[in-house]
């Protein structure tokens, strides 16, 4: 694969997004942008499972732009630290009989913002001295170890100090969060900063599409990272697509939770497609050719998508941010997706073109502002 990576690099033509370049041509794929929502620069979650925060913060930063406010680089680690507090409390109350880890859902960010607030990145980086990107796997093991050892009840009961011990470890890895801070000449608390931004977490709705639950009703989505049992509204697949397109057309961006484990999702080339011939059925010699030019894709039905979810072929891998759409030279539609894996890939600089077919097949959920949902669908959902 890497031999093709270097061979094709020169065949990219670029357009500019917030100082970073998105290719309009990748090999013989030629993309024409239809709609592009204002967004901030691509960030890097590095060695941390915090895509749920990075995608949501990217989305909220675009929301500020949409509302005519100055863009702000929001602190992901402020929310990550807060999330560990709530997750630890649940873990202890359930005596360790629930998941404890780094992953979560976009709705968790909204819940944490309501409770703890937000800070700008310049106020709270959440990085240890000498570190400029998150590295969380040691921290996850240490934090879980603290809780598990406390649950052994060495003194015959749970120590009343367990939260202080846990917070001390969080402060060691993240640093203590500010109670008050000054930003651009004004003093805020994390909660008053949210209010000043005009962000109302209750305005944002999580939506999915699976037929093992009734449509137009909310349900608790059965994925491992939904530890807080967030509700997702359920709509037919065509309406999930309609909501996404309607949002973009009306100036709203979209949070996208999806499966990125497919061989037809390429970080190297910044393309995600749903080929008519499954990867495992392709002759090996043809596999690399799918990145050279547009491919025939499978028409995805509600049943196809449900089968993949039921058989664990579609899993809740990653959260990203849909900031626009485009078409290729054959008229196939794609979403322009902002990722959080940095910009080291110089072909796409951290962006991805995801085809409609890939979206229909591999989407776990989306989150949008409630006003981005068409009125007829909002009515069906009771919103």
Number of folding domains?
A: 1
Total helix count?
A: 12
What's the overall average pLDDT, rounded? Answer: 93
Sheet/helix structural class = alpha+beta
- Rg (CA only): 21 Å
Question: Poorly predicted ranges (pLDDT <50, ≥5 residues)?
Answer: 1-13
CATH homology superfamily: Cysteine proteinases
Give the CA-based shape: globular
The helix/strand series, from N terminus to C terminus, equals HEEEEHHHHHEEHEEEHEEEHHEEEHEH
Q: Strand portion, in percent?
A: 15-25%
* Share in helix: 25-40%
Please count the beta strands (DSSP E, at least 2 residues each): 16
Q: What is the CA-CA span between the terminal residues?
A: 47 Å
- Name the CATH class: Alpha Beta
CATH topology: Cathepsin B, Chain A
Second rung of CATH, namely the architecture: Alpha-Beta Complex
> How would a crystallographer describe the biggest sheet?
11 strands, mixed
């Amino acid at each position: 694969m890497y031999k093709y990576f270097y061979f094709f690099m020169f065949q990219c033509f670029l357009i500019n997004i917030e100082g970073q370049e998105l290719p309009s041509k990748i090999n013989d794929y030629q993309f024409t942008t239809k709609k592009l929502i204002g967004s901030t620069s691509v960030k890097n979650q590095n060695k941390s499972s915090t895509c749920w925060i990075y995608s949501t913060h990217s989305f909220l930063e675009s929301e500020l732009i949409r509302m005519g406010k100055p863009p702000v680089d929001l602190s992901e680690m402020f929310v990550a630290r807060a999330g560990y507090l709530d997750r630890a409390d649940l873990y202890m109350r359930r005596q360790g009989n629930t998941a404890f880890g780094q992953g979560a859902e976009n709705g968790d960010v909204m819940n944490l913002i309501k409770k703890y607030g937000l800070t700008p990145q310049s106020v709270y980086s959440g990085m240890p001295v000498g570190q400029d990107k998150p590295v969380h796997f040691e921290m996850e093991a240490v934090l879980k170890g603290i809780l598990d050892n406390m649950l052994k009840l060495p003194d015959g009961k749970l120590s009343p100090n367990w939260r202080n011990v846990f917070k001390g470890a969080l402060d060691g890895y993240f640093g203590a969060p500010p109670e008050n801070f000054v930003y651009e000449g004004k003093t805020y608390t994390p909660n008053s900063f949210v209010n000043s931004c005009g962000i109302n977490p209750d305005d944002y709705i999580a939506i999915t599409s699976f037929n093992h639950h009734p449509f137009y009703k909310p349900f608790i989505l059965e994925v491992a990272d939904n530890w807080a049992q967030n509700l997702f509204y359920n709509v037919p697949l065509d309406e999930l697509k309609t909501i996404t397109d309607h949002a973009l057309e009306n100036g709203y961006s979209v949070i996208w939770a999806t499966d990125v484990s497919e061989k037809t999702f390429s970080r190297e080339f910044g393309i995600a497609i749903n080929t008519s011939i499954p990867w495992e059925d392709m002759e090996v010699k043809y596999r690399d050719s799918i990145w050279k030019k547009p491919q025939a894709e499978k028409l995805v039905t509600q049943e196809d998508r449900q089968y993949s979810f039921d058989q664990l072929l579609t899993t809740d891998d990653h959260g990203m941010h849909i900031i626009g759409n485009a078409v290729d030279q054959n008229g196939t539609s794609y979403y322009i997706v902002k990722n959080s894996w940095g910009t080291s890939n110089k072909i796409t600089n951290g962006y991805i073109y995801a085809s409609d077919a890939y979206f229909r097949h591999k989407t776990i959920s989306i989150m949008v502002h409630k006003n981005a949902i068409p009125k007829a669908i909002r009515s069906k959902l009771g919103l």
